[in-house]
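Thread: Newbie trying to understand structure tokens

Hi all, I'm a second-year student working on a class project, and my supervisor (Dr. K.) asked me to get a predicted structure for one chain before our next meeting. I've only ever worked with sequences, so writing a 3D structure as a token string is new to me. If someone could post the tokens and maybe explain what I'm looking at, I'd be very grateful. Here's the chain:
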Amino acid sequence: MLTRNCLSLLLWVLFDGGLLTPLQPQPQQTLATGPRENVIRLPEQRSHFQRVKRGWVWNQFFVLEEYMGSEPQYVGKLHSDLDKGEGTVKYTLSGDGAGTVFTIDETTGDIHAIRSLDREEKPFYTLRAQAVDIETRKPLEPESEFIIKVQDINDNEPKFLDGPYVASVPEMSPVGAYVLQVKATDADDPTYGNSARVVYSILQGQPYFSIDPKTGVIRTALPNMDREVKEQYQVLIQAKDMGGQLGGLAGTTTVNITLTDVNDNPPRFPKSTFFPAKFKLM
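---
Reply by user tm_fold:
Sure, no problem. This is what the structure looks like when written as tokens:
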């Protein structure tokens, strides 16, 4: 009990003397990061005696590419803490695509995309927004930037930009001998989902050759392939996105493979017995 009383007295002296300050709860971010709300909330301005914080918390909105709905696509909402719902605040939007690609409801702060967007054409837009007092026309918040990112859909098939390919491998090569590596590119976003994750397979050319589904490396799959029996092979390769899953898009290319000759045939006489030629005297 004595120890507890001493500890309490010590803490009272430290706090009362200003040597320690009670921990204050950290201000919560006013930006909803989840897709359910899609709200950027502008905090109130502070007095000039206090440390000035940013006008709002920066983050990204997302809009789906190739949207074909009958109504403009909802993107998100801007909201100021000074907006009490009395119609005294006006929201403005400027910057990349403002008015032509994106519109804002001046009263509610709702942002919509008014045309279909292509991520491969432009992956994101940088805009600026502000809250203004309707009567005084003075800004309630400092103008700040935010990003609207175009979210990818799987609308591009893999393409072999270097195909068709030509390769060669020595005849009689062992199983697993390296032939060639093919590569397909996919214009979809590699950081989002599996839209750009490509898997390779052979549609034509088995059982003579195999391909690594991840790297696209082609190797021999049969031993003792003889050039004198068959010299040319045409292999059809497929690259499929979505990790090869059902519904993925696919592209194909051909690989023309030639077996090159090795010294595997000894000289042979056409006949086993020869007779001296007969000469006729004139």
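A couple of things are worth pointing out once you decode it. The CA atoms of residues 127 and 199 lie 38 Å apart. The longest strand covers residues 250-260. Feel free to ask follow-ups in this thread.
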